[in-house]
Amino acid sequence: MTLQYAFSDIVQKDFENAGCATQLTKALDEVASLSTTSSGRDKLTQVFSLCSALHTEKEALQLTEYIENALIYTAMVDYPYAASFLMDLPAWPVKVPLPPKAIHTHIDRTYIIYHILFYNF
Question: Is the pTM of this model over 0.85?
Fold first, then answer.
């Protein structure tokens, strides 16, 4: 029998081994915090270059789930060689260096991972 959270634990461990699990957790916490206010949702809309504004916490939750899916898929294709069956990804995509801390917030750094690495925007 497989443990209930085995998959999540493996994904988490992959990011821990890459040294970025704490930063990504903080980013998702920041997204959750910003989603509770109108001005916070406006910031999320701006940071993630969304086509339409986030009007409700539920819509912001969908953004969080979208980001989490990108991170999960990135962990699932964390191979020692480049892969292109989902999209063009470098070898060991989880270990792609995070942007410098000079960027303003955890979400701004996660935005780069989310857009440039996985969703390739």
Answer: no
